[in-house]
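Handover notes (outgoing to incoming on-call)

Open items:
1. CGNR zinc finger domain-containing protein: sequence verified, structure written out, both below. Nothing else pending on this one.
2. Nothing else urgent.
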Amino acid sequence: MELASYADRAVQLVNTADPYRDQDRLTTVDDARALLSRQGACGRLSHADLVELRSLRHRLRVVFDAVEAGDPQQAVAVLNQLLEQYPIRPQISGHDDTDWHLHLAEGAPSTAAAYGAKACMGLAVQATEVGMDRLGVCQAAPCRDVFIDTSTNRSRRYCSERCATRANVAAYRARRREAALATSGVAT
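CGNR zinc finger domain-containing protein structure tokens:
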């Protein structure tokens, strides 16, 4: 089992909110169901699951923001608290004519707790195997989506190609504007 792949759950959960633009895509149980179904993890959901997922989302955001701020100790402290709150409950399974494989969080008290255990474990594995500095926040203002940098040279700065393109075009236009002002004799 590739535990690091569960880190995508943390990224997707955090990216359901953009507190800097006051956007939230996790306000209803149906929103939570849509999020979990993208991971093939949809069980019975209640309003309590929604509340728990929103709380988990906020705490996972703190992890990414702490890394961005250069405070990996804070990120580790929060992540350790989350691992304690959402312990994994591994179980070997062989269903649907598949080989034996490991499931995490089987028997968790709620669907949100199962999702949380997998997301936190995946993020912890990523952070310890490839480094805390691989947890990133998009540098294309105003986007604040998070990502995990899996590039070979640790150079990823944007959450997506769309944001990278937008930032590059904005930088190009700013350089052109500055050059035009310089040639016209107007001081910047």
